[in-house]
Amino acid sequence: MTAMIDLKGVAKAFGPKHVLRDITLSVPRGQSMVIIGGSGTGKSVTLKCVLGLVTPDAGEIRIDGAPLTGKTRQGFISRFGMLFQGGALFDSLTVWENVSFRFRHGPGRLSRTDARDRAVDKLRRVGLSADVADQFPAELSGGMQKRVGLARAIAHDPEIIFFDEPTTGLDPIMAGVINELVRELVTEMGATAMTITHDMTSVRAIADRVAMIHEGKVRWEGSVTEMDASGDAYVDQFIHGRATGPIAAIR
């Protein structure tokens, strides 16, 4: 299957600290890849490298077969959406203005009326009624803010969607709702998804494939159905949240 996102030998250090040592990973087109691993193992830096926010010291990143460079990055930006961990909504803008931000301030901008109509349509898709559109983020619960962030991520029907800890700060019921929405939307849109998370419930709900990063390398990668029988002691300890094991022993 053709890879939409392809990383080969990606390395990144910040001073003497080598965060990524050799990240080699392919995300098949139209599939959902979830990256797991402990804090400080390089998950977020990997995502930032793919987004072009951090420049790798070595290795190559290709998007849909094309190397990710300064020239190609602008075209890539127009093809992806992102749900940020903390929501990252603009407090001074209404909900619909947040959702339609790209259409109001980017290339091919829409009129205020058309942008609001599209925002309301996406809000409905994530289970929010039209009357939410004119409220401000501070007036919403954490779960509703997360849905608004999701509506913004899919507003322009992206080919690639990135999810940064999509259920952080949510109660178990709302986390389950968000997981279901993420899975439905990725499937419905035929998008390629890359998620980083610590939440194993999210992993099982939204992943087609799973990759575990440990000490700056991909320790294991396979389908979500293979995860429980990976035969890897590091993966086994992490997914079951055990206090003892090889990860604890090296810390």
Topology summary:
Blueprint: E1 3-14, E2 17-28, E3 32-36, H1 43-51, E4 58-63, E5 66-67, H2 70-77, E6 80-83, H3 95-99, H4 101-105, H5 112-125, H6 142-153, E7 160-164, H7 172-189, E8 192-196, H8 200-206, E9 209-214, E10 217-223, H9 233-240, H10 246-249
Describe this structure in words.
This protein has one domain: P-loop containing nucleotide triphosphate hydrolases (Rossmann fold, 3-Layer(aba) Sandwich). The longest helix is centred in the C-terminal third of the chain and has 18 residues. The protein starts with a strand and ends with a helix. It is globular, with a radius of gyration of 18 Å. The chain has 251 residues and is of the alpha/beta class.
Labels describing this entry:
10 helices, alpha/beta, 10 strands, 251 residues, 6-stranded mixed beta sheet, 36% helix, 4-stranded antiparallel beta sheet, Rossmann fold
